[in-house]
User: Fold this.
Amino acid sequence: MAVRKRASAHDNTKPPETENSSKKAEEFPEAAPSDPPIAPPKLGFILQLSIGFLVPYFYLINYYGGIDWELKRSILINAFLSLAGFFVTVRMIPVASRYVLRRNLFGYDINKKGTPQGSVKVPESLGIVIGIVYLVLAISFQYFNFTADSNWLVEYNAALASICFMILLGFMDDVLDVPWRVKLILPSFAALPLLMAYAGHTTIIIPKPLIPYVGIEVLDLGWIYKLYMGLLAVFCTNSINIHAGLNGLEAGQTVVISGAILIHNIMQIGASADPEYKQAHAFSIYLVQPLLAVSLGLLSYNWYPSSVFVGDTYTYFAGMTMAVVGILGHYSETLLIFFLPQILNFLLSLPQLSGYVKCPRHRLPRFDPQTGLLTGTNDGTLVNFFLRLFGRKTEKSLCISLLIFQAIGCCFCFLLRWILTGWYK
Assistant:
């Protein structure tokens, strides 16, 4: 989802009421071949952001716990492939932008309406580029790590099938602008390859304080566990999609959560002596490092002022990828705590999404072109809640505040795990 008005030359139907902040507009002219190129990537900002994460991350890989050389080698090979993916992404986005503009897939930034930037045609649905680069990286990595008889190969390919399915459905949503009720069930279809191929355990460990009351330490949920996996996929994809509306917010929250997931996985590998447990978290790293790299490449163009829109393709793809790694890495509880801001945004949105409170098509803040500030409305989103709580802000400062809040939520998760270790489970 992006803050945009979507242009379409042949749309004569009224768009459905959805959370998506784009709308068809016949009055907008088609993109012409003479449209100027998009602004260059903000690589200086991305470099500063990357250094702040990569230094502690690679320190943990090399010095925390006892990560054996074979596992470390696979992680580093995956990291180098991911770095290559970052540069390919940065290179491919301008090329793809010309094609989507030619096909009239562009929009206007609603949060800049009334300013010169508000009349600039912004290419959208660039998540399709990110998804393709990601899949090529993830498939290529199999050559370096998995053998034909690998126990993880089936689930790895099933994970990629679910991610690929979600990219396809997301791009379909970008092009067709499907109703919100349909958006809710799309991830259920995309998760089918993963659910059908899943051969892991379906048990949960009962928290220690509850064992005297339950009478058992391990509970087998059977098909209920797979239902939970499907619902987790639905939540993760849609929660990224509705916590949006600012330049850089969709890609930015993915970068923050991905960074937290990687640090969590490295810490779990270093602290465990169980080879199967280590491999589960390494599996997660193999899928998240490329996600972080391509998202950084996208963020270099999507950061304020955005020169491309990510589209529902990217938000669905990012949400499904993180759901997949949480499921197959067996840390779905931790993943949900990483998603605390998204959970809060969902709870704030629930009255409107359920129809109990009237839900407008665009649940966005009001933009004042004279001051360049956003003012919160009464709509139930975390974006508007922050503006009502802290006062008017520029779009860039509001996005930074929300991403800091996301990082604080991830830090809270690490603190909570440290406090509960040995007592809760």
